[in-house]
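hey can u run this one w/ 4'-phosphopantetheine bound, need the structure tokens asap thx
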Amino acid sequence: MEKIAIYPGSFDPITNGHIDIVERGLKIFDKIIVAILRNPAKEVLFTVEERKKMIEISLNKHSNVEVDIFDGLLVDYAKMRNAGTILRGMRAVSEFEYEFQLALMNRKLNREVQTVFLMTGLRWIFTGSSIIKEAASFGGNINGMVPPVVSRKLKEKFGFISSADE
Ligand code: PNS
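ok here u go:
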């Protein structure tokens, strides 16, 4: 049976740390579904459609990666997609408490779905979407921390290049 993992998150925007987790995950799973949560309650920089497009472009060399948008409970979405695993990346110990809570709640909601954590590569330990957005908002150089399409879109969003420059 095909081993499918759901890699859920906000991905606002996707970073090289996320890509690293997907690529590590592909060594374990036959297919990974990157699932973006549609969450109207959360303030975001990019629309879900923009985020989906950037992820698709960034991961287009992997035919066994799909990008999708979901709402509602993650375990329900996993079941609907026949995925037995939720994949999450873990960078620092500070993330453990939140991840632990999330994994335990998901297990309570559906015992059939397992959460698997993968550690990001060392070089991505100190980067994340929020800090990258902050740097980009002040015109900081974020090349190398995010895929090229994301770097371009961030510069565009914060007015450091116009889409006409492309
Ligand atoms: O990248 P994030 O923002 O930390 O991802 C959080 C995400 C999307 C994995 C989590 O908020 C989620 O799964 N939300 C969907 C609702 C749900 O099932 N919540 C967990 C049990 S209440």
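The longest strand covers residues 31-37. anyway lmk if its weird
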